[in-house]
Automatic annotation (TrEMBL):
It comes from Papaver somniferum (Opium poppy). This is Macro domain-containing protein. Gene3D superfamilies: Leucine Aminopeptidase, subunit E, domain 1. Residues 9-177, 196-359 form the Macro domain. It comes from the Eukaryota.
């Protein structure tokens, strides 16, 4: 069950590759450990690295005075600065149950011109240092989300996508993220939380990601450069769930348009992981992009198929000059894909191509 995205103890666990997994949990990070020899927790330090408030103070208190002494021996790169923003340093963990502490400094959200760059670098450099130090298990807190005021939703997206991006270079690492995602899902405030229930945050200077509940068939931006994604089946002639709702709202013209899509083999117009585009007819958007996700318990590599579905939708949208695109939770209904695992794949894939879209 752990690899399928849920456990009875409240920890969300899912595979991000054949050798790596991501866990999302609440708890006291100073109590976390796996084996005490190849595990590390991340400390949200300040640039001096001599302890501070919040989690930094808690970790120093749990590790004992030896941690401060070890930090003091870290060379200064400029006067009083041992670890600049976005970088990371490593020390033993002393009285903590893990073998190492990786210290990183995140950005002050309101004081940085590009806080997302500094935060991504902080996660990336922690993972790089873990790899160099032969660490197999690493636990992150929600970096910069306390007194540094980084919006939880935006920080969670950066955390997930950076872990996913780094997975290809890590062998068998298990990453635990404390509080960042579970708190984000509760809408803890900040610039990513709007009064209308829409979670709205910047991915780049030109693109944003919105997370919202609602009827996707009612969504639109301008009716000329927008599209919704339909969670279709391979026949593309309508079905249950979102597929049926989209077809009903678009009217019978949509089914007729889908029928004209060439079959790649008998009865199959859109194989799993691929995407096709049609006009939207009576829907308020300009296009419908039809994608077929994996059946979670049947597909041998559902994460590959799901990522391809999102990627091919975005590719098709770009080719058709679509600037705004709305996705449902592909494969999370009757196809049984766990929401947490699917969300991580969706967000990280969108981050790959965020510069090509406005929203």
């Amino acid at each position: 069950m752990a690899s399928k995205g849920g456990r009875d103890d409240g920890i969300k666990v899912f595979k991000i590759s054949s050798t790596s997994s991501l866990k999302i949990q609440r708890g006291d990070i100073t109590m976390w450990s796996v084996n005490g020899t190849s595990d590390a927790i991340v400390n949200t330090a300040n640039e001096k690295m001599l302890g501070g408030g919040g989690l930094d103070g808690v970790i120093h208190g749990a590790a004992g005075p030896e941690l401060r002494e070890a930090c003091y021996t870290v060379p200064e790169v400029s006067l009083g600065i041992r670890c600049p923003k976005g970088e990371a340093r490593i020390t033993p963990a002393f009285q903590l149950p893990v073998s190492h502490v990786i210290h990183t400094v995140g950005p002050f959200y309101d004081n940085e011109n590009h806080p997302e760059v500094a935060l991504r670098n902080a996660y990336r450099n922690c993972i790089k240092l873990a790899k160099e130090s032969n660490i197999d298990y690493i636990a992150f807190p929600a970096i910069s989300c306390g007194t540094y005021r980084y919006p939880l939703e935006e920080a969670a997206t950066i955390a997930i996508s950076t872990v996913m991006e780094s997975d290809a270079t890590l062998s068998g690492i298990t990453t635990s993220v404390f509080r960042a995602l579970t708190m984000a899902s509760k809408g803890g405030g900040g610039e990513g939380n709007r009064g209308d229930g829409v979670k709205d945050f910047k991915l780049s200077l030109s693109s944003s990601l919105k997370i919202q509940r609602g009827d996707i068939t009612m969504w639109s931006v301008n009716g000329t450069s927008d599209a919704i994604v339909n969670a279709a089946n391979e026949k593309m002639l309508g079905g249950g769930g979102v597929d049926g709702a989209v077809h009903r709202a678009a009217g019978p013209e949509l089914r007729r348009a889908c029928y004209t899509v060439p079959e790649v083999r008998p009865g199959i117009r859109c194989p799993k992981g691929e995407a096709r585009i049609t006009p939207a007819f009576q829907l308020p958007v300009f296009h419908v992009i039809h994608a077929v996700g994996p059946v979670y318990h049947v597909d041998n590599h559902p994460e590959v198929t799901l990522r391809n579905a999102y990627r091919n939708c975005l590719k098709l949208a770009k080719e058709n000059k679509i600037e705004y695109i709305a996705f449902p939770a592909i494969s999370c209904g009757a196809y049984g894909y766990p929401y947490d695992e699917a969300a991580a794949i969706a967000i990280s894939t969108i981050m790959e191509l965020d510069g090509d879209f406005k929203e």
